[in-house]
Amino acid sequence: MSVLEVAALRIAAGMREVVRDLSFTVAEGETLALVGESGSGKSATARAVIGLLPPGLRQSGGRIAFAGQGLSALSPARLRALRGPGMGMVFQEPMTSLNPAQRIGAQMEEGLALHRTLDARSRRQACIAMLERVGITDPERRLQAFPHEFSGGMRQRIMLASVMLLRPRLLIADEPTTALDTLTQAEVLSLMKELAREQGSAILLITHDLGLVARHADRALVMQAGQAVEEGAAAPLLAAPRQPYTQALVAALPRRGPSRALPQAAPLIEARDLSVAYPGRGGWFRRAAPMQAVQGVSLSIHPGEVVALVGGSGSGKTTLGRAMLRLLPASGGSLLFRGQDVTASTGPALLDFRLACQIVFQDPYSSLDPRMRVRDIVAEPLRLPAGMPIPERQRRAEAMLAEVGLGGLGDRYPHALSGGQRQRVAIARALVRNPAFVVADEAVSALDATVRKQVIALLRDQQRKRGFACLFVTHDLGVVEEIADRVVVMQSGRIVEEGPRDQVLDAPAHDYTRALLDASLRLPATA
Amino acid sequence: MRLRLNLVIGGTLMGAVLALAVLALAWTPYDPTRTNLRRRLRPPSADYWLGTDEFGRDVASRLMAGAVTSLGVAAATVLVALAIGIAIGLASGFLRGWVDRVLGAVNDTLLAFPGILLALGLLAVIGPSRSGIVLALGLAYAPTVARVVRGSVLSIREREFVEASRALGNSEAYTLLRHVLPHTAAPVTVLATSLFGWVILSESALSFLGLGVPPPAATWGNMLASARPFMQEAPLLSIAPGALIAICLLGANLLGDALRDLLDPRDGA
Amino acid sequence: MSRATAPGPWTRHAPGACGSFAEVALYVLKRLLAAIPTLLLVAASVFFLMRLIPGDPALLVLGDAATPEAIADLRASMGLDRTLPVQFALWLSQLLGGDLGFSITSGEAVGPLILDRFGVTAAIVLAAVAIAVLLAVPAGMLAAWKQGSWGDIAAVSLATLLLSIPSFWLGLILLLVFGLKLGWVPVVGYVTFAENPWAALHYILLPIATLALVEIGVLIRMARASTIEVLRLDYIAHARAKGVPESRVLLRHAFPNAFAPTLTLVGLVLGNLLGGIAVIETVFTLPGLGRLLVDAIFARDYPVIQGVMLFIALVYVSVNLAVDLLYPVFDPRVAAE
Amino acid sequence: QDLLRIRMNADIRSTDPGVNRDANTDGIAWHIVEGLVALRDDATVAQMLAERVDVSPDGLTYTFPLRAGVRFHNGQALTSADVAFAMQRYMRRETNWRCRADLDSAATRLTAVETPDDRTVVMRLEKPSALFLTILARPDCGQAGIWHRDSLNADGSWRAPIGTGPFRLGEWRRGQFVELTRFADYAALPGEPTGLAGNKTPLVERVRFTIIPDEAASRAALIAGNIDILPDARSRDLPDLRARPGFSVHSAPSMDLQTVLMQTRDPLLQDVRMRRAIALALDVPELVRAVSEGGSRPSRSPIPPGSAFNTPAMLEVPPRDLAQARRLAQEAGYRGQKLRIITTRRYEAFYEIAVVVQDMLKEAGIESELEVLEWATQLDRYSRGDYQMMAFGFSARLDPSLSFEMFTGPKATQPRKAWDNPAVQAMLDQTMAEGDPARRRSLFEAMQARLMEEVPIIALYSSTTHGVTPRHVQGYRSWAVDAPRAWGVRIVR
Ligand SMILES: Nc1ncnc2c1ncn2[C@@H]1O[C@H](COP(=O)(O)OP(=O)(O)OP(=O)(O)O)[C@@H](O)[C@H]1O
Ligand SMILES: Nc1ncnc2c1ncn2[C@@H]1O[C@H](COP(=O)(O)OP(=O)(O)OP(=O)(O)O)[C@@H](O)[C@H]1O
Ligand SMILES: [Mg+2]
Ligand SMILES: [Mg+2]
Fold first, then answer.
1. Of the bound ligands, which one is closest to the alpha carbon of residue A37?
2. What ipTM goes with this model?
3. Is there a contact between A379 and A397 (Cβ–Cβ < 8 Å)?
4. Any transmembrane segments, and where (chain B) (predicted)?
């Protein structure tokens, strides 16, 4: 018997339909994955199921039945009674889905108090047991803590604990781990599956990550623009997609590119024993110890080489990347560019260094000034070195835009572009001055799988064509496979492993690298 | 729906007051400072639409002239407050470190001052005049502007395009002016609108205490102040300028709300 | 003259409500020490600014019939014949001894004078803000909860309207209607609470109502805006997804989080009211701190001006400190920083 | 029930008579302490604590036999030693008595206070003075009030007044009120009350002077029954108050002087033709009518109309002559420059005078603008002589010499003086020493003539005091000074 039945669901945002004629069922104990690109209506569907559509969206048709019971017929009170023990929901953003002003004990107990007739003591016991179950140590004391005292992964686990405490028959998880780093992501998802299995809950898992689907889902439903395109058992569906859209999604999964032999040359840029520290918070009486984000890292990058810098969240990747561009001051060690020490250079020397180096940031939205036209953004680097006349700058910018596939879009503002297009603009800006060295800090992490594929291709092509060296910061090993010549693994501010790509990926020497590799989700077919 | 209503009502109110001021520049029924001691405190009539004040001056004409003064003073004050506040806010937000700390201390000092004292002190030193009021109130409100600007600079400077500009080798000054400053426009516009209302209010409050734009020039504030003794026998004298102040404030507040909604990035993008 | 607006004070990091007593005490001490430069700056600028202003207290006392000899005598007895830096140093050293000096017009000790007048002002301001908070915060939250409903539109319109009425004008009209026309409350005067609480209430009713009405406008809007902000967040949806009833969602989940920013505003409002209260005290002829300051300014009573200014600055700092200390109760995240 | 509530526009400065004072302070002081002599309603001097005053023929020795049966509020009998003690304190420089300089000046110098016996006080002057007794009686000198020595602290500083007056000091709550209580053992003079002299029997148990700074609020308080005497209603409120049943208005001419001052050192105004042009441009009767709401008469002399020295010639108002004004201005080289008229809103009359003057000058083609200053600033500018024109008011001077002296003097040493003319100064000095009223009068007439010729100031009028009381208050009268008198007043319900 199915726990959830959705028939001909329609959801409208004003006059626009964002979900059209969607039907599916979730059987007892089953995990159904809802897959699709951003904006395809996955969250809207999930919210409709639990009856909590945000203002602006409304269900304009169709029927949703939980355990055979139509939801639209229920009174608000009955519906409320159903939420929690019937349907539980885990949200995407661990940072905002717990009430910051309430102790987590109180938040966890709340559901129990509402839906079960337990005394305070047994509620507490249940909470403690559950926290223990999700791997929070010292649960008794931690019940008194506030959410901000936990890391993102812990919060997501607490969230999960508080939902599973009520043993819901259906667990709705809307991208429950996208905000977490690879290692934590894997942990939380496995935990979720395990708990669901123990309690016999069905799961409606929403994701745009095919790796997740392959690993955790029984069945999958692929959505595009509010409609179902394809549905079926997860493994066969991914192995042999029938619909072109699904095929495109699958094709977008990263594949290892050929390894290259690069000519020996003197290092282009070299970090020697580089350390970076963030100053501690100042006070009147004492100053907190500085935070050592990068500690004695030595790394050299040769002309034309693509080095991938991987590591867990907070391991110091971004810090190292920025320090190598002198966007952050080094607290120790030195930085050499073409053999020249540039660790502390200023004025013209610094400008020369700046002119030769560039950076592409993770967030395609925030790295572009929203008040400048795309053409001006791309032309801006040409201000320096001074001397190029403005029409010439504009012409070059147009040419560069055409090269990244944005010909004719120069008059637009960033907000009028898609995420992928924006990232192309950022790449064009970085490359227009023909830099010798580019740092790409998670340059594709924020993009949809299909778009990511295209942007990686663009970067790779440009790299091959222009021959700049590149430090590619990422936590996504798939990307590494596609583009890197060499891999550097960081953990807590130090380099723990370094070597040619194939060697590091196929025969990891360090435990941490192995853990990273295990956690990264790759389709069985390509693994 | 609410947004448009705010815009329409706020715009209409402000527009009407503005139109009144523009008209007053060209024409008023009578000379607003012309006294006529034989016609003091007349009730409204066909000749004097809103009656006359204690010097026999035409109230309607004075209200119109008052619109010019009040709006002019408010606009100039807002500009002064913005100029000072933006400079301080930009500097302390962007440079941080000791600059921020020093400016923060000065700012806190100014905020801890009752505006009246600041205004009085400056007015007495500069001499009571429109420019005195403008400078005094401008200084009094600059810290508020500085705080808002600093706040938005702090959030903008964390955005990556600022860092990108640096990475391009652009100087700090260029980055500040080209990439940071324009982004304070939205919060500052909203603030400026509210500020406009507050300044009109403050100017009238200062006039009420006898420190405002010096008479016989008409401002709503000093009209209200001089009407106060006649509250009972000529209530219209106090009601009319008070109502105009309220209308102006309401307009500014509604416009401010509308602008806030318009410029909210959540709905804008 | 509300200068209150958007973001909170320049810096904000307080020890948690959960911090130990010693931690909190240390923090309070630190904050008060940190305020010393500000207070000194206030003191110095007031001192020298006031002396830049033309006008001579001796002349004011003696009036139009003052002879040069009489003025010189009086100035000497007021201690105004010494050079400015000497006067400032003297005043500062007195201040360190906890002595604010004596009014040069009335000869009263400034410290007790300020405390005496502050009673009236504090009673009015605190009562007004308390009433405003009690009425406006629930109203604003309900409006946010029913965003877009007629009730919401009515609340916002009312708030905007209240916000747009000059307080002194409102005060005058209230005085006219309730004092003169209806005769419900006395028109002038003041009795302290110690003397006769019931009568005292009558005297400060209208001033409180005036201030409260205006602040209600500010606070409704603030409470509504921050509640709307909070209601958009996932944890509200999470609470609802747990089947929590709406009343509890509002009270337990939305309120504490929405109240935190409002609290900051309340702090600012309190500070500003202290500065801007002079107008209200003038309208209602109350012997409060604002009136004392304005009168002292008009009389060039330097010790009183300096004392009041310093006191107001201190109150401003303390109120913001209190807000900061209270803040973690509503938003424990702040404590972490 | 037996509480009389009187409006006071500001708090008093102290209870120390004539020392740390202003008009309100004087007004409280004269209920508590009395001097040897006191002023009558017409500003002449009468005996008070002195039985009478005997002046020696050479005018140098004043003998004051004290009245019998006068007691201080603490029950002690008044003796000549008390008088000497108080006078010595007044004459010490550190005391800062308002009138010490007046009794130590070229015109009047007190050289000795003697007490030949318990009941007699003798005072000696360096040379004869027409002003001596007036100074002793002046309210702003605290009437040289006599208080018991227990009014001082052990260290000689002032504590609280223990006087002989009809009321004793009750409670002074700063910023709120000053309360006086009836002195049961008051030794009243027979007859009627007049000025600060005559029969001053207190008829109410308590008098409370309630501080209400605001004019409108004061009137409201009167109407609402929160006060019993409004001693200084604004003239513009009178029509309304008169129309109300149950209120009576008590008007009395006052001895102050409202003027327009002109700086005779100003490049433009130093030309007497320009000053005359300005005077001619003003329609003084119209101006006075407007500003005082018809309550006061114009007067072009500094000597107030109520004074015995005011002659019909002084009341004569030259008619307005716009054509002549234009011509004179033209001759003086006036070419449309803007004159600056300083005024303040602290005193409504100053402001109104300035507004009307500006308007009237405009009709004569003389442009001007107002500089509205805060009072402290205006006073500062006045005392430095830093003005072109100024609407200004002088408080009551109770002697005609002083009425001229208040604006006459050398600018070099006293920049505040408007009229700097050595010849006039000599005449003024003469009036101060001259004992014969007829000779004084002719001197004043001569000075008045020169004043009208040289126009350093334009005297406009002396104002009128309007006290208002509800019907249940009986026996209240306004007088030449704004501050009220609570003796002789009773409440009848
Ligand atoms: N509150 C809302 N008001 C109006 N339109 C909305 C609202 N929320 C979402 N939409 C629109 O509905 C559509 C579907 O949104 P939904 O959030 O369900 O997408 P999604 O598949 O979950 O995407 P993502 O992977 O980015 O979370 C989108 O076009 C979105 O713009
Ligand atoms: N501005 C800062 N001030 C203080 N500490 C910082 C700052 N920025 C980063 N850190 C700390 O430095 C460490 C390294 O941070 P970094 O951003 O380099 O990590 P990362 O490897 O890029 O992580 P992610 O994958 O999450 O981007 C982290 O512990 C982080 O908390
Ligand atoms: Mg979604
Ligand atoms: Mg990073």
1. 1
2. 0.74
3. yes
4. 7-27, 63-90, 102-126, 188-214, 234-256
